[in-house]
Design the sequence.
């Protein structure tokens, strides 16, 4: 009797495993079939490519060319278009907005090198080509790492730093990527189930924000658009290896380095952020005692889409001091 139960349990478990494998394989195959569009067919015509030493970076510029530059770094799986309401508000206030696509996201080239140092170097190249005077650097979520790295490694590029719900990884112990993620096919499967899976976009967006109703079709479409580019799943799988690691060689991974920042720093944070909780903002204040902290009531991890008016007012108030 017990032996029969064990045999049937083993058969059921095997069947479940086979079903899971089959579903995962189907999503990966669908991603490969879906990702067949060229950049020219999808990228906004208002944007343009800027050549760097590691491929071209897609940027969208708004506002007067002689205005103080404000450079916008987006977070994970986002791109420059997610900033569009903020870009409009800054441009209307006389700033020269440079919203960029951090590779492998958006419409930038995907060179395969995605450490914070790599990202900072290529954006330094971008600002050199654009002849941008020292700029106000704004970094959101995971993009705050590259933004801070730029300020630390190329201080002459920055007149100030604004950190928005910054995912800097400063409060946890450094760790290596899990060994299970080393095979690229594993990462490709995970990416095809999540970031490049159009069925998951709205769910993922809702999981990041406090105001769930702001996961509107408009923002879902914005996030989905670049994932139709050729090889998106494969390219994002390369980046995932960097994402799950600690990037220990980054200057911005060194807690002591923050006290050495010469530029003024403003911190904007949704007080309902459960991705990078408010404790992380408080911790940043201990590292940068001179930094100002503005809490955004009722907002979560992506305040610029959850309440664009409230967020833009807070950002404009912060940058007006620089």
Sequence:
């Amino acid at each position: 009797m017990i032996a029969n139960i064990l045999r049937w349990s083993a058969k059921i478990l095997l069947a479940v495993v086979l079903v899971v494998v089959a579903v995962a394989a189907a999503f990966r195959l669908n991603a490969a079939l879906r990702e067949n569009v060229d950049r020219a067919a999808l990228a906004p015509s208002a944007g343009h490519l800027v050549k760097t030493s590691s491929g071209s970076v897609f940027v969208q510029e708004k506002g007067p060319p002689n205005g103080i530059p404000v450079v916008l770094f987006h977070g994970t799986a986002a791109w420059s278009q997610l900033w569009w309401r903020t870009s409009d508000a800054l441009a209307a206030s006389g700033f020269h907005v440079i919203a960029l696509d951090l590779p492998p996201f958006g419409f930038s080239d995907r060179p395969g090198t995605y450490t914070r140092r790599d990202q900072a170097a290529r954006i330094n190249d971008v600002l050199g080509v654009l002849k941008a005077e020292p700029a106000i650097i704004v970094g959101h979520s995971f993009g705050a790492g590259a933004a801070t790295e730029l300020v630390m490694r190329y201080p002459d590029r920055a007149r100030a730093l604004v950190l928005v719900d910054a995912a800097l990884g400063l409060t946890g112990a450094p760790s290596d990527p899990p060994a299970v993620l080393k095979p690229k096919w594993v990462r490709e499967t995970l990416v095809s189930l999540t970031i490049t899976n159009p069925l998951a976009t709205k769910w993922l967006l809702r999981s990041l924000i406090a105001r769930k109703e702001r996961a509107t079709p408009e923002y879902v479409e914005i996030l989905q658009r670049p994932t139709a580019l050729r090889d998106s799943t494969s390219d994002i799988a390369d980046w995932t290896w960097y994402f799950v690691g600690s990037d220990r060689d980054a200057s911005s991974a060194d807690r002591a380095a923050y006290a050495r920042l010469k530029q003024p720093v403003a911190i904007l944070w949704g007080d309902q952020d459960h991705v990078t909780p408010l404790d992380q903002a408080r911790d940043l204040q201990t590292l940068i005692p001179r930094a100002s902290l503005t809490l955004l009531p009722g907002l979560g991890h992506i305040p610029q889409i959850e309440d664009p008016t409230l967020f833009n007012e807070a950002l404009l108030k912060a940058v007006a001091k620089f």
